[in-house]
Design a protein that fits this description.
It is built from four helices and four strands; from the N terminus they run αβββααβα. The protein has helices spanning 3-23, 59-62, 71-87, 105-116, and strands at residues 27-33, 38-44, 49-55, 93-96. It is globular and about 35 Å long.
């Protein structure tokens, strides 16, 4: 396993362990960031189901954003996941950034979700 991947996996596990302690009955907002797109899911770990999802690949956003790899696109995904959370009757979540640093697109998605009404 390359060193960079190994460090990413260690960071991801460290974040997940901390989240399990804080979550206590709350839904997890998990993100995945690729080179071209960003994805967000609302996951209920107690039931083991995904309640809602949003990404830059969605038809709703594809026409609005120029590229899926920008902070503006990530903010739009955050706003969209917050709207879908409201329809799934989720108000409070735990933000799971995975192994990604809270910077750039990850931060923009979180700010968009907060702007849309999610509390975390």
């Amino acid at each position: 396993m390359p060193k960079q991947t190994h460090l990413f996996e260690r960071r991801k596990e460290r974040v997940r362990i901390a989240l399990r302690k804080k979550a206590i009955g709350r839904v997890r907002l998990s993100i995945f960031r690729s080179g071209k797109h960003i994805y967000a899911q609302l996951i209920d770990d107690a039931k083991g189901v995904t309640l809602a999802q949003a990404s830059t690949v969605d038809k709703d956003l594809k026409s609005k954003v120029k590229s899926g790899a920008t902070a503006d696109a990530a903010k739009q995904v955050g706003i969209l996941i917050a709207e879908r959370a409201k329809s799934a009757q989720v108000k409070s979540v735990v933000f799971d950034r995975g192994g990604y640093l809270y910077h750039g697109r990850v931060k923009a998605l979180a700010e968009g979700a907060r702007e849309g009404g999610l509390a975390f």
